[in-house]
């Protein structure tokens, strides 16, 4: 059974930094990549950053230039380095991945989700 285990959330002041980690058990991120989402209270879940299996990445406009996604293949862990945090970044952050069917074919939906980690930024 695939598991995504997150860590690294916490509380910081505006302008500070946090680094989130997502380690996969029984899943390889270099098959279908992975993504970070966040959900603030009363708001819909938002795609924050994605890393494709070829190592390329894409960020939401709201975090461009402040957040960086990276992959440690040896540790099978994806990181989200968050700098210059703002109060509007406060949310529960989730990592998510798609099922790999083999031969580079990936599900269009996100099948696996982490448990979520709280990030709170105070102004």
Structure description:
The structure is a single chain. The chain is mainly beta and 123 residues long. The radius of gyration is 14 Å and the shape is elongated. A hairpin with a 4-residue loop joins strand 7 (67-72) and strand 8. It is 3% helix and 52% strand. It is built from 1 helix and 13 strands, in the order E-E-E-H-E-E-E-E-E-E-E-E-E-E.
Write the SSE topology.
Blueprint: E1 3-7, E2 10-13, E3 18-25, H1 29-32, E4 34-39, E5 46-51, E6 57-59, E7 67-72, E8 77-82, E9 91-97, E10 100-102, E11 105-106, E12 112-113, E13 117-122
Parallel strand pairs: 2-13
Antiparallel strand pairs: 1-3, 3-8, 4-5, 4-9, 5-6, 7-8, 9-12, 9-13, 10-11
Summarize the structure.
3% of the residues lie in helices and 52% in strands. The chain is mainly β and 123 residues long. The chain is elongated, with a radius of gyration of 14 Å.
Number of helices: 1
Order of helices and strands: EEEHEEEEEEEEEE
What class would the helix/strand composition place it in? mainly beta
| Average pLDDT | 94
What descriptors fit this protein?
single chain; about 120 residues; mainly beta; seven-stranded mixed sheet
């Amino acid at each position: 059974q695939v598991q995504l285990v997150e860590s690294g959330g916490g509380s910081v002041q505006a302008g500070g930094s946090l680094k989130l980690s997502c380690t996969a058990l029984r899943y390889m991120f270099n098959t279908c990549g992975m993504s970070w989402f966040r959900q603030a209270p009363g708001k819909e879940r938002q795609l924050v950053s994605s890393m494709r299996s070829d190592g390329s990445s894409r960020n939401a406009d709201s975090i461009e230039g402040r957040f960086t996604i990276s992959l440690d293949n040896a540790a099978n862990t994806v990181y989200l380095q968050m700098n210059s945090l703002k109060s509007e970044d406060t949310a529960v952050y989730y990592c998510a991945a798609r099922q790999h069917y083999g031969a580079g074919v990936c599900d269009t939906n996100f099948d696996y989700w982490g448990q979520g980690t709280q990030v709170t930024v105070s102004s």
